[in-house]
Specification:
7-stranded beta/alpha barrel; nine-stranded mixed sheet; globular; single chain; alpha/beta; 403 residues
């Protein structure tokens, strides 16, 4: 049987104060971050997506638990989502914890969905991988055995670190420029010259994932409307070790509204998939144990991600504004760690969340529309001004503390 890994990225960032630094704030976090806006967005998405999608999946999981082919969901939950869920909707944590043990797995990632994996010095990245892993285990009782870097950003060094930090596997995008004629439905590993401690590289099937994530409600699409029955038939025809479906959880009820039929599609999908004797759902840790069929060689200057048409790091480092701010964040590491103050460390790490730089991309056409959709800034240059103002003030506060 072909294993289907149904994987969901669950993330909300801590958003910056658009109106500038709050000099009257009682603590460092409130000086820069806007919890009123965070709460507004979180509660809105919870109503549209988190509750209805999770309740549907939970019902289906309980129905099939203990069978030889249970429904399995794999959640990649960011630390910032966990923090906000605990504050605004702790019952969401309880809901996820009600999944039967045979029906759920968790995928590790960098602490606070950060871009530390792109730092020159990878010591912070290593710390973040392990700290987030501990938080997931403490919150959900499951220790992740497979990880993905933020936004599936990947190159050989990240793969090497994932293996050295004890992960059985690492997830990234199945990009054609590296795969060539090969299939994303097979398991790969790092080249021998990268590391002897290799692990499995699991690849997202971009086409099949985006058929749901991006094209589900597209009336121009020649496969519209997409039904669970039709989609299951496509999966049944797939070849390879596994089919890895990795999508934003907000696909269900937020990016595609309930009126499009997306939640009905999600609820119907497990039954339609399991009508096929050659398909089953799987935990990512199980798929990571499959033998590799070859090497996935992504050198640093050919970095992979799931973002935009380029599927590289340009969604965050594609213009001079993004590069300047990223360099500033990286340069602050030495000073913040010299200060050795937990409050300053936490705020600095929240600045590293990938969303901030994603919002100031200046791409056009479809990619530009995606960036604008997620951004709470009126324009990328407004975002640049806001982030710069906050970072410069933060540096001033650090310098004062250092004396």
């Amino acid at each position: 049987m072909t294993p289907i890994t149904l994987c969901f990225e669950v993330h909300q960032p801590h958003r910056l104060r658009v109106d500038g630094v709050n000099e009257d704030a009682e603590n460092l976090y409130d000086r820069y971050f806007d919890d009123d806006m965070n709460e507004h967005f979180f509660r809105d998405v919870a109503e549209n997506c988190y509750f209805p999608a999770t309740e549907r999946l939970l019902r289906e999981a309980k129905k099939r638990s203990g069978s030889d082919r249970p429904l399995v969901v794999n959640f990649s939950v960011s630390t910032s989502w966990i923090q906000q869920a605990k504050e605004y909707h702790p019952e969401l944590i309880d809901l996820i914890n009600r999944f039967p043990d045979d029906s759920i797995d968790f995928i590790g990632q960098a602490y606070l969905h950060s871009l530390a994996g792109l730092f020159d010095d990878k010591s912070e990245f290593r710390w973040q991988l392990n700290h987030h892993r501990d938080i997931v285990e403490d919150t959900f009782g499951v220790r992740p055995q497979v990880m993905t870097n933020t936004e599936l950003i990947y190159h050989n060094e990240i793969g090497k670190i994932s293996a050295e930090e004890g992960y059985k596997g690492v997830f990234t995008e199945g990009v054609d420029r590296i795969l060539g004629w090969r299939s994303p439905n097979d398991v790969y590993t790092q080249p021998e010259f990268v590391t002897e401690d290799s692990n499995s590289i699991l690849l997202r099937n971009r086409k099949l994932t985006d058929d749901v994530g991006y094209r589900f409600s597209a009336e121009w699409w020649d496969e519209h409307p997409l039904t669970a029955e039709k989609y299951a038939s496509w999966l049944s025809e797939a070849s390879g070790h596994s089919v890895n479906l990795f999508m934003d959880y907000e696909t269900f009820g937020e990016h595609h509204w309930e009126g499009t039929g997306i939640l009905w599609f999600l609820e119907s999908l497990p039954e339609e998939i399991l009508k096929y004797d050659n398909l089953r759902f799987a935990k990512v840790r199980e798929v990571a144990e499959n033998p590799s069929v070859g090497e996935f060689d992504a050198f640093e200057f050919n970095t992979v991600s799931w973002a935009d048409q380029e599927m590289d790091a340009s969604a965050w480092l594609g213009n001079p504004m993004q590069k300047m701010l990223f360099d500033k964040m990286q340069a602050l590491e030495e000073k913040v760690k010299a200060l050795d103050d937990p409050e300053y460390l936490e705020v600095w790490r929240k600045f590293l969340t990938s969303d901030h730089l994603h919002h100031i991309a200046t791409k056009t056409y479809d990619d530009g529309s995606v960036h604008n959709y997620f951004s709470y800034f009126d324009h990328p240059h407004e975002g640049f001004a806001v982030i710069t103002d906050h970072l410069m003030d933060f540096q001033e506060q650090v310098d004062k503390e250092l004396g």
